[in-house]
Design goal:
Helices cover 16% and strands 44% of the residues. The protein has 2 helices and 8 strands. An 8-stranded mixed β-sheet has the order 2-3-4-1-5-8-7-6, covered by helices on one side. β3 and β4 (52-59) form a beta hairpin. It starts with 7 loop residues before the first strand and ends in a 6-residue tail after the last strand.
Length: 130
C-alpha cells in the first residue's frame, strides 16, 4: 500500500460470495487471506502476499448494494479527501458517497469522474511507527 498523494492505495473486491472469491484468489494469486472483523457484519478479508497486505475482499450485503454488480474497486490516496471532493465537484465529477471515516483505515469518499467512471479516494490513516 502506498500513501503518496495520487498513488493507487488499495484495491478491493466487492462481491456477494466472499468465501468463493477467497478460495479462487488464494489459488489463482497465491494469497494468504486473513479475516478482519469490522463491526457486526461479516469479516473483511485481507489478501496477503507474504507479510504485505495487497488487496481486500468485502461481502456486499444490504439494500445499499441492490443493483450493484460484483467488481474490483480502486482507491487513490489523496492528502485531504474533503478538499479533493470539492475539486471533484468543481471539475465536473460527482461525489457519490460523501466522506466517511473507517477507524484505522482512513477517510474515504466514492466519486465518479466526468465520464461516469467510479473510483474511491482516501486519506489513509497514519500508520503506527514500526
Amino acid at each position: 500500500m502506498s500513501e503518496q498523494h495520487g498513488s493507487i492505495h488499495w484495491s478491493e473486491l466487492m462481491t456477494r460470495d466472499a468465501a468463493k472469491a477467497r478460495a479462487f484468489f488464494a489459488k489463482v494469486a497465491g494469497w494468504n487471506i486473513q479475516e478482519m472483523q469490522m463491526g457486526d457484519g461479516p469479516p473483511y478479508l485481507v489478501c496477503m502476499q507474504g507479510e504485505k497486505p495487497v488487496a481486500g475482499i468485502m461481502n456486499m450485503e444490504g439494500p445499499q448494494f441492490d443493483g450493484t454488480p460484483a467488481m474490483w474497486m480502486t482507491y487513490i490516496a489523496v492528502d485531504d479527501v474533503d478538499k479533493a471532493c470539492e475539486t471533484v465537484s468543481a471539475e465536473g465529477g460527482t461525489v457519490v458517497q460523501p466522506c466517511f471515516d473507517v477507524e484505522g483505515v482512513g477517510r474515504i469518499a466514492m466519486i465518479q469522474d466526468p465520464n461516469g467512471a467510479m473510483v474511491g479516494i482516501m486519506t489513509p490513516a497514519a500508520r503506527p511507527e514500526e
